[in-house]
Design goal:
Largest sheet: 5 strands, mixed
Bound molecules: 5-phosphoarabinonic acid
Shape: globular
Number of strands: 12
Strand order of the largest sheet: 1-12-11-7-10
């Protein structure tokens, strides 16, 4: 397999592998050719401003400015803390887990080559206090990320930490915060400007969950010492490859089409299973992208539809021992996306002691990476034998370039799926109602105790 390879394999979605009832035939795809052409056109020929912003972020983000700021941040802190939520947090966390040492924060400083790294994407006080127990505020830089600049969770964290830092270092608190936001009238941008905080801007039309390849994900990545040029180059390579109008040459489009056909046949859940622990948080990032972009109460041609495929995050091999019984014998309402890695960052030989259990030499020339891949193959074979649809993305290795390709694959797949489902994948009207609700309850003196309760 070539360096930085990304291979999309859809064999186990086809009738040839899982039978006529569950599989998709070439005819099934040809029948919806008009829809496919239209979906392609929605994304590439007549892109709305939000779609254009995805490419603009790749082409126009000033990577040198990010690298220079990251260099300065790295020299002045031992801990780098991202304060954000949803699309302002999940991408950075996925990058961190995918591309740094598994025990990054536990490594001694000379082996880390980057500050310890934390993403605080909740307002649970116990968690926030726990963070304070392991960081030194004098040597911490906070990266406050909010596209709108008005998110209650993020702003409450920001103001709380700002006060604590000021109490320790006085006016120098300003050097402990960098802000990533929209260049708009949001509270965060105005506050940062008034106080002279370092700012990076998210392109105006770039939605939160689509922003991982802007300063939202790239600044944390650069602070971690990662190669952000390669991340962006990988994403661009996937974007360019996906401009092919031939669905058989266009991985995100074909994947969306196959998923769409499955969805129309009742596959209402999309399970993503990396067989590589460092890609675990890609599952969280993908889940938000898929759920928030496609879950809709849509009115199409005057009729109301509840639309959406529930994303499920799983991890191989652990899921085999927890969820696969359901996946194999339970309701056939899921479509599976495996992520396979050919070459792991490092390896361990399989111990020869295992041979006794098998009564033959099964370990010769085999490593743990072979074992995890054998487990994955066994899982896909099992799903196929139960006629359950699955696709597999195989990557050569987990590095910046390949991760960029993965991000862009799922972003484009989501856009194509949105076009096929005829939904706007950019807004999130129902989520906004919670944001508004939180603010309304905070402003009132409502107590949140429900009326009918059972106390035990
Ligand atoms: O994808 C989205 O738009 C949302 O999930 C947001 O990222 C999330 O609500 C946080 O919003 P903001 O970045 O404005 O603080």
């Amino acid at each position: 397999m070539k360096e930085n390879a990304f291979i999309y394999d859809y064999n186990n979605l086809l009738t040839t592998n899982i039978g006529d009832k569950e599989g998709v035939s070439f005819d099934d795809i040809i029948k919806i050719n008009d829809k496919i052409t239209k979906a392609y056109s929605t994304v590439f020929d007549k892109p709305v401003a939000n779609t254009k912003a995805i490419l603009e972020a790749l082409n126009k983000t000033d990577l040198n400015a990010i690298k220079n700021s990251a260099k300065s941040i790295r020299s002045r802190c031992d801990a780098f803390v991202v304060l954000g939520i949803g699309g302002s947090a999940l991408g950075a966390n996925a990058i961190f887990k995918a591309l740094t040492h598994f025990r990054h924060n536990e490594l001694p400083k000379n082996k880390r080559n980057a500050p310890r790294f934390f993403v605080e994407d909740n307002v649970d006080p116990t968690r926030l206090n726990a963070l304070l127990d392991v960081i030194d505020l004098n040597r911490t830089v906070f990266c406050v990320v909010s596209k709108s600049g008005n998110t209650t969770e993020t702003l409450s964290q920001f103001f709380a930490f700002r006060k604590m830092v000021e109490a320790q270092v006085g006016e120098a608190w300003k050097e402990h915060f960098v802000v990533v936001t929209d260049d708009n009238q949001g509270k965060l941008n105005r506050y940062a400007e008034q106080n002279g905080l370092e700012r990076f801007f998210i392109p105006n039309d770039l939605g939160g969950r689509y922003s991982v390849l802007s300063p939202v994900g790239l600044l944390p990545a650069a602070v971690l010492g990662l190669n952000i040029d390669a991340l962006v180059a990988g994403a661009k390579a996937m974007y360019d490859a996906s401009k092919s109008q031939d669905v058989w040459e266009n991985a995100p489009l074909l994947s969306a089409v196959l998923d769409y056909i499955n969805y129309t046949r009742g596959k209402c859940m999309s399970v993503v299973i990396p067989y590589c622990e460092s890609l675990d948080l890609i599952g969280d990032w993908y889940s938000q992208l898929w759920a928030e972009s496609l879950g809709r109460n849509a009115v199409i041609d005057g009729n109301e539809f509840k639309i959406g495929q529930t994303p499920v995050k799983a991890l191989g091999t652990s899921a085999q021992h927890s969820q696969f019984q359901l996946y194999l014998e339970g309701p056939s309402d899921k479509i599976f996306t495996f992520i396979a890695v050919q070459k792991f960052k490092n390896d361990i030989p399989l111990p020869a002691d295992l041979n006794d259990m098998f009564g033959q030499d099964v370990t010769k020339n085999r490593n743990f990476s072979d074992l995890i891949n054998i487990e994955r193959v066994a899982s896909t074979i099992a799903l196929t034998s139960f006629n359950r649809p699955s696709e597999t993305i195989t990557i050569s290795e987990v590095n910046e370039c390949v991760l960029g390709k993965i991000f862009m694959f799922f972003i484009l797949k989501t856009l194509f799926m949105g076009a096929l489902l005829k939904v706007n994948p950019y807004n999130q009207p129902a989520v906004e109602s919670i944001k508004i609700g939180v603010k309304a309850i905070l402003k009132s003196d409502t107590k949140t105790m429900p009326l009918r309760t059972i106390e035990v």
